[in-house]
Amino acid sequence: MNKDIIAGKWTQVKGKAKAKWGDLTDDVFDVAEGNSEYLAGKLQEQYGWTRERAEEEVSKFGRTLD
Fold this sequence. Notes:
Elements: H1 3-8, H2 10-20, H3 26-32, H4 36-47, H5 51-64
């Protein structure tokens, strides 16, 4: 699933994202509104991942939604 589809279906996808990355707050998901770069940045900040890893995690998550 590409970034545009994630953004378009964010309301439905948000619950799955919360389940996957439970350490992120509801506010993060509300502000993200499907913005993969913002979400990757918050994952990087929360989990101490590199930018590349955070972006890959978001990409993998998107692929599970197909």
